[in-house]
Amino acid sequence: MNSDINSIENEEIKIKKKEEIINRNLDISIVDINDDIPDLDIKARKIRLILNKVTEDNFERLGLEMVKCFQYNNKLLAELVRLVFDRAVNKNFAGLYSKICAYFYNQMKQHSKTVSKCFKQELNHKSEDGLLQTSESLVPLSKFISLLYKEKLINSLLIFNFFDISIKETSSEYQLEASFNLIKQLSPHLASNNPNRLESVYKSISSLCPSNLPKKFQFLILDLTENKSTLTIPNPLIKKAPVTLQNKKTGKNVSFGQAGDFQQVQSHKTKRILKQNVSEETKTILREEISEHVNGKKNLEIIKEIFINNKNKERQLVNQTIKHALINYDREQEFTKICELIIHVTEEINKKEAIETGIMYTVEAIQDIKLDSPMASQHLIFIINHLEQAGVIENSGYLTANLS
Which end of the chain is more exposed for a tag (fewer CB within 10 A), N or C? Predict the structure, then answer.
């Protein structure tokens, strides 16, 4: 028993030392994202001065300085994003400022998921607002947004929504040019993300009457339609080399993904369950299809295809589906739709047992989820009870015990 206690104490000391090293290297001070912070104007001016010094050679150093030296709340993040967009769009430094955005986000993510998430949300809000305009700044803005998207900082739904409103004969020339730029730059990425919706975008382009448009756009339309087969080849996914492990009881080798893809999860029967993560790209595709399904699109076959293409990862896909629902929805009818989606898809692929384990993962992560959605525990209880009533969970008691 004493050796166990000493082992635990030693482990705690190691963790504390690791945290001290991180804090020394990144002396970051962060307040609640919704709180006011002192001297906001002074901090905003300091950030502006830092951004004025950014070059290809020093953007990492200055990006790290912005992470280390400032407290961030919503207002300061909004000012940071405004300054970044001004330099990227109005001063034509899209490439440089997309790099510093990606670097800032990745560094901040290690130290405050709340701040990094709010930064990303602010980038999306600023992009969405910018795409509503019809002025000439739309064209350089589209270049910057395409680079942010490639850095995985922009949601593809925002891009597709822009296509819906801009690819029309009544649109301004700037809207058409910006949309054509985005299509040309992002088609390979969007094709691996949402090929069906991208196909509808190309149909919209084909439906335009070139003779009603200036020569410049006639050539752009011709270029896109003639090169569609090349442009819509999905951006290749990075496949991880398999790792072969040996089952000690049977002596048989079992092939899995990278060892780092697995974590252990405790079930209610104390059995350890390997959790295999799905790729970030798959998560993005799944989330977007779920959003469209909840909004009324009949795309269950597409979601089923995602589950089929990620064999043996069904539990994590269930987990990702529920997490997405907890963060993005707050109405019982929306959660009911999510439950019906999960039941339908897992029944179709004969994997209903994945539901309960998937929810275990969500229960374990509930404290992190509550950072984004304070009512997550109550909503998860509703989901669990609904699934129990549907007969896919035998006894929800152990799942809800620590949620109320």
Answer: N
Q: 236 pLDDT band (50/70/90 cuts)?
A: low
Q: Say how many C-beta atoms besides its own lie within 10 A of residue 386's C-beta.
A: 19
3-class secondary-structure state, position 43: helix
The domain 243-400 is placed in CATH, from the list 1.10.357.10, 1.25.40.180, 2.120.10.10, 3.30.310.260, at 1.25.40.180
User: Is 94 strand, coil or helix?
Assistant: helix
Q: Which helix (H) or strand (E) holds 256?
A: strand 253-256
The answer to whether residue 167 scores a pLDDT higher than 90 is yes
CATH number for the segment(s) 15-231: 1.25.40.180
The CA distance from 145 to 123, in Å, is 9
Per-residue three-class SS string for 269-328: CCCEEEEECCCHHHHHHHHHHHHHHHCCCCCHHHHHHHHHHCCCCHHHHHHHHHHHHHHH
Tokens of 312: 């043996």
39 token code pair:
């001297």
Q: Which positions ≥6 away from 367 have C-beta within 8 Å? A: none
Residue with token string 């009324």: 296
Are the C-beta atoms of 197 and 158 separated by less than 8 Å?
A: no
Mean pLDDT, range 344-355, rounded to an integer: 91
- Position with higher pLDDT, 74 vs 271: 74
Domain boundaries, the chain: 15-231, 243-400
The phi, psi pair for 247, rounded to 5°, reads -75, 115
pLDDT, residue 47, reads 93
Helices 195-207 and 173-193 sit at what angle, rounded to 10 degrees?
Answer: 150
pLDDT beyond 60 at 148: yes
DSSP conformation class of 90: I
pTM of this prediction exceeds 0.70: no
Q: Tell me the per-residue pLDDT of 75-94, one tens digit each, with 9 for 90 and over.
A: 999 999 999 999 999 888 99
For 393, the 3-state DSSP assignment is coil
| 15-231 and 243-400 share one fold | yes
Q: How many other C-beta atoms can be found within 10 angstroms of the C-beta atom of residue 282?
A: 20
List the single range of 163-172, 206-215, 268-277, 360-369 with lowest mean pLDDT: 268-277
pLDDT of residue 23 exceeding 80 = no
Q: Which two tokens stand for residue 21?
A: 């090293």
Could you tell me the pLDDT band of residue 10, with boundaries at 50, 70 and 90?
low
